[in-house]
Design brief:
Layout lengths: L12 E2 L5 E3 L2 E2 H8 L3 E5 H16 L5 E6 L6 H9 L3 E4 L2 H9 L7 E3 L6 H10 L3 E4 L2 H14 L4 E7 L21 E2 H13 L4 E6 L10 H21 L5 E3 L17 H19 L5 E4 L3 H4 L3 E13 L2 E6 L8 H5 L6 E2 L9 E6 L8 E8 L7 E4 L20 E6 L2 E6 L4 H5 L5
Parallel strand pairs: 4-20, 5-6, 5-13, 6-7, 7-8, 8-9, 9-10, 9-11, 11-12, 12-13, 15-17
Antiparallel strand pairs: 1-2, 2-3, 4-14, 14-15, 14-19, 16-19, 17-18, 20-21
Bound molecules: ligand LLP.
Amino acid sequence: MNSKLAVFPTSAEINPQGHLAIGGVDMVELAAHFGTPLYVFDEATLRARCREFKREFVSRYGNTAVVYAGKAFLHGALAVILRDEGLGLDVVSAGELHIAINAGFPPGDIYFHGNNKSRDELTLALRHNVGRIVVDNMNELDMLIRLAEEGGYTPKIFFRIMPGVDAHTHGHLTTGAADSKFGIPLSRAEEAVAKAMASAPLKLVGLHFHIGSMVGEHQPYLAAMDRVLGFSAEMTRKYGFDLQELDIGGGFGVQYTLDSPMPEVSFFAERLTGHLSAHYKSLNQPLPQLIIEPGRAVVAQAGVALYTAGTIKEVGGRLYVAVDGGMADNIRPPLYDARYEVLSAGKADVAEADEVTVVGRYCETGDILIKDTRVAPVVAGDILAVPVCGAYCLPMASNYNAALRPAVVMVGDGSARLIRRRESLEDLTHCDSI
Ligand code: LLP
């Protein structure tokens, strides 16, 4: 068995034809049917990850809400699964809110985030009566107070606190440090709490922080928790603030390559809930609800990108294999130096004798998908499967070089259904007028 299967969806296997199969569906046949680039999501893995988060956190800290961060990937079919599995949803724009509502996701389980929400977005959130609005800054607070007063709304809100903690991740993925565009610095947060507590329509029920993404350690979460809980206690003394809900964000790292393991969900669950319970035990106060917002860790491993190999060139001792996708559907390697594995879907049981660099088809030198990796001897027409593509690939996809954004398929129980058709040439000019 190829050891790379470990980073593919849980249902991945090598079928009797020697092909990669996911959800009981042969990936070579799937690529032939729908074309490539193709993004494949495994329903079993999606559900397993939702359940794992719920199980690991709720078994240790009963009052936990798992709120999926839709920015990692959002689609109506996923929203239905999330609702089924009892997760909430974090959205950051009118667009994400629309996708969720359109799929029938209950607005009361939606958490509305964003560091620069527009008046229209706040109005939409109020009209839909979303569960929580996570207020990022003082301007937003003022705008929300006005809109709530004018419209007669009584939204439940959190403040996003900038805890000033370094999450030790890629610089672009750090969000909770002292110098960040997200949230209210602790030094100004008292002003925000005082104002919200004095406002009749707003119900300040909790505090939120998010330290960053692809976090591989628990200590930064604990440090941020300590700061925010310390601040909360001070607000209780001064203003009678009641911390009913503590939202500690997402960021749980996932394994992309065989040589970069990440802690299990249970590792984080044990340490984070233990810390919170211990804190409250010493205070002898009621525990707040704990809210976690995993995005990547729910969807990353469930998604696989399929490409077709085209041009193969040997240059300067390197074998370059160009595929029919690249940075337009996955900008993560050039943006974050992200690394991936690759498996030849039709030669899944063949020794990986070739060292290759997989590049995209876009007019950009940096359009390198995977540098110096191993794959079974490759010829034009082979289907290459890249695992752990479920998070932050499609949502950041572009039409660079007038690329058509890929089709998306959901697989499970031996069948596949198209959940998003491939863009067409007509789609490219659909919004234009000459
Ligand atoms: N909550 C908040 C407030 C966030 O800002 C984020 C991610 C999450 C939750 C979910 O974080 P996750 O569990 O997915 O790490 N485009 C980057 C990732 C950016 C993450 C932004 N915020 C990437 O491709 O790695």
